[in-house]
Write a structure and sequence with these properties.
Distance between the termini of chain A: 18 Å
CATH architecture of the largest domain in chain A: 3-Layer(aba) Sandwich
Structural class of chain B: mainly alpha
Oligomer: heterodimer
CATH superfamily of the largest domain in chain A: Thiolase/Chalcone synthase
Strand content of chain B: under 5%
CATH architecture of chain B: Orthogonal Bundle
CATH superfamily of chain B: ACP-like
Low-confidence stretches of chain A: none
Strand order of the largest sheet of chain A: 5-4-6-7-1-8-14-13-9-10
Shape of chain B: globular
Radius of gyration of chain A: 19 Å
Number of helices of chain B: 4
Largest sheet of chain B: none
CATH class of chain B: Mainly Alpha
Low-confidence stretches of chain B: none
Helix content of chain A: 25-40%
Mean pLDDT of chain B: 93
Distance between the termini of chain B: 15 Å
CATH topology of the largest domain in chain A: Peroxisomal Thiolase, Chain A, domain 1
Strand content of chain A: 15-25%
CATH class of the largest domain in chain A: Alpha Beta
Structural class of chain A: alpha/beta
CATH topology of chain B: Non-ribosomal Peptide Synthetase Peptidyl Carrier Protein, Chain A
Number of domains of chain B: 1
Helix content of chain B: 55-70%
Number of domains of chain A: 2
Radius of gyration of chain B: 12 Å
Number of strands of chain A: 14
Largest sheet of chain A: 10 strands, mixed
Chain lengths: 395, 82
């Protein structure tokens, strides 16, 4: 089996429209959330979200292309363009894969379109409604744009979508099924219908996301996209490519217990599987980028899972405290944060920490970065529906 | 009236297809204008809006030129007026 290098990354998030601004914001501890602008927030109980501001899809696609697809595809296309340019090589042909993750897909378009039928009494919908809604549209657009003719598909496992996408692409490159892959995820969930549905779950914070902290009161919804460019390590070394990190392990598990409440056993089995897949022992892991949503339940369950797998847990941080919870794009944003932490020897912090929660006893790198050259890291994603995916990376 | 319909059809096609109205002629074919099946659907949708008519699926599928569109729309508009 081949080793797999990450040679390109691309990001669009509330923290910035490219990799560099994203990383700078993470190490500055910047809060990406602000009062919501994209929908009328007087109709919402919560007021803050991590929206991508100042993004122009026409910087990476033609007006006609931009009109054909939903915003979640615009964001994915921009992240993908950056990842490919960053890698310094072409991603094309039948030996290349593109796997995208998304939770909502084009539900923003769906919500706005059906509003025209139900509320505005329109009798017809726009002919692009179906292609704009389809969850695979980002994978399809990227495939067409770059002539990627190998495996191309979309994974939708709610908040674990892009970890599942990245993990499957990694396994395809590792096994030799393909010679290169692009993988990640994108999400653009800011329509009134989707936000009201999240409001009804009563898991969204009225102010800020405080993962693992006493007084935490929920997640902050976000939009964004991130794409990783992968190729065999030998090929990357042979062409003298810049290598951010090696992706070396992938675990998947299901809680098989509850639709929304997480199970620590499921999360622990998933981390153990990722370690086993990487052939690594727990003590080799120097950092965990947590799922860390900042909901009361997730953070307790995740702490218990980490403590079950790691007799002496490494530092753990939740970058969702800054970029928010981008649902199906969350794993991809956090994979980028994790590989950049490995590259720079800097752990991004968990922001908005108030005081320790006795049920979340972890070293969560509160408030400020930590300089430490770690050798390996995990990035966790645990979805509603009990579907878990964990990625392992090393230098 | 004929010329007005022609101008309006050309304007709708140009706007929907993201091209200048100078490039759309009454005698242009969809192939010349690089209007594919998905573009055609959007043009039909926009024409229904512009002229407040309903274009049947089988008629819409047959359209391959601007002239056919102008003739079809003229027929529908006349039928509506009658």
């Amino acid at each position: 089996m081949r080793r797999v290098a990450i040679t390109g990354v691309g990001v669009v998030s509330a923290l910035g429209l490219n990799r560099e601004s994203f990383w700078n914001a993470l190490i500055e501890g910047r809060n990406g959330s602000a009062p919501i602008q994209s929908v009328d927030r007087s109709l919402l109980k919560f007021q803050h979200a991590a929206e991508v501001r100042g993004f122009d899809p026409l910087q990476c696609m033609t007006p006609k292309e931009a009109d054909q697809v939903d915003r979640f595809v615009h964001l994915a296309a921009a992240a993908c363009a950056e990842a490919i340019a960053d890698s310094g090589r072409a991603f094309e042909g039948s030996q290349t894969a593109i796997v995208t993750g998304t939770s909502c897909g084009g539900k923003d378009t769906e919500d706005r379109s059906f509003h025209e039928l139900y509320a505005l009494s329109k009798t017809r919908l726009h002919p692009l409604t179906i292609p704009r809604i389809m969850a695979n549209a980002a994978a399809s657009y990227i495939s067409m744009r770059y002539g990627i003719r190998g495996p191309a598909y979309t994974v939708s496992t709610a908040c674990a979508s892009s970890n599942h996408a990245i993990g499957q692409a990694f396994h395809m490159v590792r096994s030799g099924m393909v010679d290169a892959a692009l993988a990640g995820g994108s999400e653009a969930p800011f329509s009134l219908g989707i936000l009201k549905a999240w409001e009804a779950m009563r898991v969204v914070s009225p102010d800020v996301c405080r993962p693992f902290s006493s007084g935490r009161n929920g997640l902050i919804l976000a939009e964004g996209a991130a794409i990783l460019a992968m190729e065999p390590l030998d090929a990357a070394l042979a062409r003298g490519a810049h290598i951010y990190a090696e992706i070396c392990g992938f675990g998947m598990s299901s809680d098989a217990s509850h639709l929304t409440a997480p199970s620590w056993e499921g999360a622990a089995r998933c981390m153990e599987m990722a370690l086993r897949d990487a052939g690594m022992a727990p003590q080799e892991i120097g950092y965990i980028n947590a799922h860390g949503t900042g909901t009361p339940m997730n953070d307790i369950s995740e702490t218990r899972a980490i403590r079950a797998v790691f007799p002496a847990p490494p530092p753990v941080s939740s970058t969702k405290s800054m970029h928010g919870h981008a649902l199906g794009a969350a794993g991809a944003l956090e994979a980028v944060a994790t590989v950049l932490a490995l590259e720079h020897g800097i752990l991004p912090p968990t922001m908005n920490f108030l005081a320790a929660d006795p049920e979340c006893q972890l070293d969560i790198v509160p408030g400020t970065t930590r300089q430490v050259q770690i050798q390996a890291a995990l990035s966790n994603s645990f979805a509603f529906g009990g579907l878990n995916a964990v990625l392992a990376f090393r230098r | 009236m004929e010329s007005t319909i022609t101008e309006r059809v050309i304007a709708v096609i140009a706007k929907t297809h993201h091209v200048s109205s100078d490039t759309v002629k009454a005698e242009s074919t969809f192939e010349e204008l690089k209007i594919d099946s998905l573009d055609g659907l959007q043009i039909v949708f926009a024409l229904e809006d512009e002229f407040d008519v309903s274009i049947p699926d089988d008629e819409a599928r047959k359209l391959t030129s601007v002239a056919q569109v102008i003739n079809g729309i003229t027929t529908l508009v006349d039928k509506k007026a009658a």
